[in-house]
From TrEMBL:
The keyword Calcium does not apply. CDD domains: NAT_SF. Keywords: Acyltransferase, Transferase. Belongs to the acetyltransferase family. Transmembrane segments: none annotated. PROSITE patterns: GNAT (PS51186). This is N-acetyltransferase HLS1-like. Residues 9-186 form the N-acetyltransferase domain. The lineage of its organism: Eukaryota, Viridiplantae, Streptophyta, Embryophyta, Tracheophyta. PANTHER family: ACYL-COA N-ACYLTRANSFERASES (NAT) SUPERFAMILY PROTEIN, N-ACETYLTRANSFERASE HLS1-RELATED. One of its GO terms (molecular function) is acyltransferase activity, transferring groups other than amino-acyl groups.
Amino acid sequence: MMGDEECVIVVREFDPSKDVTGVEQVEKRCEVGPSRKLSLFTDLLGDPICRVRHSPAFLMLVAELSSTKEIVGMIRGCIKTVTCAKKLSRNTKSNDPIKPLPVYTKLAYILGLRVSPSHRRMGIGLKLVLRMEQWFTQNGAEYSYLATENDNQASVNLFTDKCGYSKFRTPTILVNPVFAHRLTVSNRVTLIKLSVSDAESLYRRRFSTVEFFPRDIDSVLKNRLNLGTFLAVPRGFYTQESWPGSDKFLSDPPESWAVLSVWNCKDVFRLEVRGASRIKKTLARTTRVADKLLPFFRVPSIPDVFRPFGLHFMYGLGGEGPSAAKFVKALCAHAHNLAKDGECSVVAIEVASCEPLKNGVPHWKRLSCDEDLWCIKRLGEDYSDGSVGDWTKSPPGLSIFVDPREF
């Protein structure tokens, strides 16, 4: 039994010069999957803050025993400015039609909360969350949110019962394997790779009022991990060479079109599936061999996810028109081929549960998650715009913008 002095927990800022090994040990102890069941493990490639370092402001805290200096817990957090609602333009002097404008708020995000199994039920998780929220408040964040598995009852109880968070959104994560063969992009669709400035213009003009849209979208698009933004239009409407720019395109768009961006998670972290039986591994290997030897059969092969693998994340999904979902399918095929060229094993996207374009995203149900759970908490007494009210009580919209820096 521990002495009282050993139970004193000190919460402090992560020190990369001395804490990496201790943090990795806690991660490993927390990633013990159930016996004989498939479990997903994450390798952060030696960089514990890799999933927050691309945000405008971030912090990582560790909890350690004061006597032994052993790290027994950690938490990561970041802050950005996002769209929380929209309001109508009040410019009465112009003859232009009234357009919705984004209402921004400063939002904090919690991720990577871990407590060593041997030190749970000691209030360490709560202590880490409260200290992180203190930093959020000091830096002007008005709301804090997090994503957790819907069936992770311990996490849900901690945040909803003890920390004052409420269940907010239940987006869907769609995952598709990357096959040994390339996917065919419909010959009825032309794909155009947009410049960063064109992509920014298109997103700001058409999607800035989507919930969780980051005001610093330019930083996201300029990031080295961003592999590009791709626009799908009807064949014959535009080509890469005749592309006139987003402004002209949006002034007279085709009846149907779609847009999508791709983010390279492979250079941030790797994943690994453990707990698979020998039979499942053999079956997966057989499909890969068949796909590689007979690519013209287009066998839906299972990639080798039983060793560390990378993924590409698709984000910024949008579009309009009756055939928009078909254009999304073409964009996803292109993203699949990019991932194949990048030696990734899966492509993934997270969308609102009622996203109209969701039907255009190919995915394997077994690999996907119908309901990811986002919980939210109001931190500030005041709001960005008093006419909007409390964001935590707002109904969900059709779409949601998932920041790739936090996936």
